[in-house]
Design a protein that fits this description.
about 90 residues, globular, single chain, 3 strands, 3-stranded antiparallel β-sheet
Length: about 90
């Protein structure tokens, strides 16, 4: 697995650091974010009709809005099949 760092929440501190990476082999995005509370998970699950609960192998994560430019950059790199980031 080859992973390229794209960016970290600019308002981060040492204990809270939402981050985005690109896996350059699989062309997938990787996110680190905050775990939502139970109420948030319940609301998310209720908005996906017929889907049920989030499996143990998956997670809902919160990513701060100020990271949108980094996420766009990662999406653009994956769409181009280009692992080079700015």
């Amino acid at each position: 697995m080859t992973v390229r760092f794209v960016g970290i929440d600019p308002d981060t501190d040492e204990d809270h650091c939402p981050t985005v990476w690109v896996d350059t082999q699989t062309q997938e995005l990787l996110f680190q974010g905050w775990k939502p509370d139970t109420a948030t998970v319940t609301v998310c699950e209720s908005t996906s009709p017929g889907r049920g609960s989030v499996p143990e192998s998956e997670a809902i994560v919160r990513i701060p809005a100020q990271m949108v430019p980094m996420i766009r950059e990662a999406c653009d790199a994956v769409e181009r099949g280009n692992t080079e980031l700015r």
